[in-house]
Design goal:
The chain has about 150 residues and is of the alpha/beta class. The protein has a four-stranded mixed β-sheet with strand order 1-2-8-3, with helices on both faces. It has a two-stranded antiparallel ribbon with strand order 4-7. A two-stranded antiparallel sheet has the order 5-6. It is globular, with a radius of gyration of 19 Å. It has helices at about 10-20, 35-50, 115-120, 140-150, and strands spanning about 25-30, 60-65, 75, 80-85, 90-95, 100, 110, 125-130. The N and C termini lie far apart (about 40 Å). It has four helices and eight strands; from the N terminus they run H-E-H-E-E-E-E-E-E-H-E-H.
């Protein structure tokens, strides 16, 4: 969810499908218990897509709260939220005495209000976020070009 999609293997797999011309959906359970809920949501959304295709050339990122199917409140179309930067790296020694580094835990939610994927899932809704593959900051092209010319 949120800016974690930039390194999500699930989203990367959906992007590969998108590159191959397949309308793709990344499904994730936000937790470790109610896999049957996520499976049921996946089945329902794919059946809906088969009957009436998704009306966009975007891939979808679907996040399902870790609750029983009967406890879901519905679905919400959302935007990506954002986290603060991750915690500090953790330095340890491996069994041979060499330094190893572990990524610190993810940062706390920074942009997690109404309309975000974080908020929807916390409130018990399935979050559906349309994603685009082109990450280019188009509005910055000219300013970066000018910056390079001013060296």
């Amino acid at each position: 969810m949120g800016d974690d999609v930039l390194y999500s293997g699930t989203v990367a797999a959906a992007m590969e499908g998108h590159f191959l011309g397949v309308q793709s959906v990344a499904f994730s359970l936000v937790g470790h218990e109610h896999f049957e809920t996520a499976a049921q949501i996946a089945i329902e959304l794919i059946q809906q897509h088969q009957e009436k295709p998704i009306p966009t050339n975007r891939l979808l990122n679907v996040n399902v709260p870790d609750v029983a199917m009967d406890d879901l409140k519905g679905t919400q179309v959302t935007r990506l939220g954002a986290r603060h930067h991750a915690e500090e790296m953790i330095k340890q020694k491996d069994p041979r005495g060499h330094d190893i580094y572990w990524l610190g835990p993810p940062g706390k939610q920074q942009d997690a209000g109404p309309g975000t994927d974080f908020y929807a899932v916390e409130q018990g809704y399935v979050s559906i976020t349309p994603l685009q593959v082109d990450l280019t900051a188009h509005e910055s092209l000219q300013s970066i070009d000018n910056w390079l010319k001013d060296k």
